[in-house]
Amino acid sequence: MSEIQIEFIPAISLISAQEWNQLMVTSSDEGASVNPFVRHEYLAALESSGCVCAKTGWTPMHLTVLQGEKRLAVMPLYEKTHSYGEYVFDWAWAEAYERNSIDYYPKLLCAIPFTPVTGPRVGMAKSLTQSEAALVWSKITEHFSEMLQKSGYSSWHALFLTKPECDMFSKQNALSRVGTQFHWMNKGYQSFEDYLAAMNSRKRKDIRKERYRVAQHGLTMRFVDGGEVTDEQWLAFTHCYQMTYAKRSGHYGYLNLSFFKSLAQNMPQQIKLLLVETNEGDSGADYEDKQGQRIIASALYFCSDTHLYGRYWGALETIEGLHFEVCYYQGIEYCIAQGLQTFDAGAQGEHKVPRGFEPVAIYSNHDIAHPAFRDAIEHFTHQERTQISCYMKEMSQSLPFKSSD
């Protein structure tokens, strides 16, 4: 294999969407829609909207591997000056550095900003042999190691990788870390009632009661395809998202209307917007659709040929159980109707377990330049891995399904 080079791209727009997307479709994905969050269109929307830029602490420097004029691999990469919007938490590491008067930032981060979803992080040319691909992995990690030594970065991190990718980086001496999320798995259910029938009677009753309480409010809920969402509906969704974020976190969230509308324009086929509407009450400053119904809540979903992803939601009114209905039960019904295999409804949340979401492992890799801190962090990750394993077993035992005995 002739000499290969590594270069960095300061904007995703400097590489074509076709070339990026072709590389980011792994062999296991062929014939299926690309994971929506690694698509060029998604990353470009983050940058063009100003959500991702140096000012927000996410400086793009996407890695690309070249052999002459041929691009062999790409990786979404950012220089970070904080740890917000990552969802694999290293705040304690940063605080330990600060206590010892050592800079933790800037750091290098391979991730999809604000998106805790597992997917490919290194896209490689399908023509590479196994040995050639291994050489590319080696070159990437070698280059990162050189950057840690020479460019003032404390560390590099790759978040929410696939298990094979995590294993590849681990072979190159990167530390590995394991966490957990809760996903819903479609086991051939024909309807929501069919799904409930797999549960024990108490949990089944609880969910029916929870959904009944929401149904008493007379709300209309419907999914709108990304290409059919109107400007007014996007405005309503963004308002719901920002108001809910402000109540919870004191700021209006990381994303804006420009980002959402860019997605609708450039990748509508992988977007579903759930609208929650009512005929009751005065419109006031709220948003109405063409039928005069008032939009009081909304949720943005993404889909591939196999997965549904629940990402952002918001509500303008407080209704008991509405979050569970909008973010969980509507998504489950959609998966059953469309034959999707997995529903990823977002990060964390033990409250998903009694509703039938199962613990799954998530993976990340980390390389730390400072020898003493690397040793300490490696020790921590070993302890954490044991704790996560026990936690996942405990959560699995708490699932609401009938015993298979």
Automatic annotation (TrEMBL):
One Pfam assignment: FemAB_like
InterPro entries in alphabetical order: Acyl_CoA_acyltransferase, FemAB-like
Superkingdom field: Bacteria
Name of the protein this chain belongs to: GNAT family N-acetyltransferase
Organism: Shewanella woodyi (strain ATCC 51908 / MS32)
